Amino acid sequence: MSKLETANARIIRPDEISLDRRQMFRAAGITTLSAAAIAVLGGCKTTMASTPPASENDVAILNVALGLEHEAIGAYQLGAQSGLLQKPALNVAVLFQSHHKQHRDALIAAIKQMGGMPVMAKSLNDYAQDLNAASLKSQSDVLMLAERLEKGAANAYLGVIPSFQSKDLAQISGRLAADETMHWTVLASALKESLPSQALTFGA
């Protein structure tokens, strides 16, 4: 039995999973991220010195983002240890997981610097249940799930950009979205999916 099948989850296909991360941001009350919070996240000391202290809302916003990064790391770990991924797909999954770990570490550092408490990651078994990992039976299933997670993350980061009044403050969110979009593109190619026929695929 695959390690992915240890979770007692309802069996559904990956394309049935709803992963609208923008709804998660809105559910957490996220409307804007202050200049101070973005400065901390981006490591911009000049901006940090000229902005007021970050608010509790800033910490909440970053913790939602951190929770999504924890989930992505868990998803790639489940895929990597499932035995379903073969090289070079396995190598790509490990690389993408390392990107999400870098996102996680940057978010944790920012939250701590603002005096907040970073949200903890769930157990791997919890992520297996949340993501219905028992339904994954092939390499394509794993890649489809990862693809959906990456597109959801890209849309989430793009979705908060309009709340920023400064282009500089939106840059960090845009850079995170760019990473997720790159991941999605590689995964779509691995699945031999056609390129989007319409422009403006992300952030709608």
Q: What's a quick, concise take on this entry?
A:
The protein has one domain: Ferritin (Up-down Bundle), CATH 1.20.1260.10.
Can you tell me about this structure?
The protein is mainly α and 204 residues long. The protein has one domain: Ferritin. Helix content is 61%, strand content 0%. The protein has helices at 21-27, 35-42, 45-49, 56-81, 89-113, 124-130, 139-160, 167-190. Helix 2 crosses helix 5. The longest helix has 26 residues, at 56-81. It is globular and about 45 Å long. Mean pLDDT is 75; it is low at 1-20, 22-38 and 42-53.
Tell me the distance between the termini.
Answer: 40 Å
Estimate percent helicity. 55-70%
Tell me the strand percentage band. Answer: under 5%
Order of helices and strands: HHHHHHHH
CATH architecture identity: Up-down Bundle
CATH class: Mainly Alpha
According to CATH, the fold-level topology is Ferritin
| The CATH superfamily title | Ferritin, core subunit, four-helix bundle
For the secondary structure, the number of strands is 0
Task: Tell me the major beta sheet.
Answer: none
